[in-house]
Amino acid sequence: MAVPKKHLSKARRDQRRAHHAIDAKTIVNCPNCGESMLLHRVCPSCGYYKGKEVVKQKEEKE
């Protein structure tokens, strides 16, 4: 098992962990329908991605 030779200071340990924070997801408006969606993903409401229909949506029965 790996054992450190010297004591690691709290400052050095915390500097290493400074990049471990979780970032918030980027939410943008769909250019096709205007609904909010995650960036670089297919729009869940209209099924478009980069101006092309990728997923066909089911028609709502009235």
Explain what you see.
The structure is a single chain. Helices cover 11% and strands 16% of the residues. It has 62 residues and is of the alpha+beta class. It has a domain at 22-62. The strands form two sheets. It has a two-stranded antiparallel sheet with strand order 1-2. The chain has a two-stranded antiparallel ribbon with strand order 3-4. The termini are far apart.
Outline the fold blueprint.
Layout (H helix, E strand, L loop, with lengths): L9 H7 L10 E3 L6 E3 L9 E2 L2 E2 L9
Number of separate helices? 1
Give the % helix.
Answer: 10-25%
Estimated radius of gyration: 23 Å
The average pLDDT score comes to 90
| Terminal CA distance | 66 Å
Side-by-side strand order of the widest sheet: 1-2
H and E order? HEEEE
Indicate the proportion of strand residues: 15-25%
Outline the biggest β-sheet. 2 strands, antiparallel
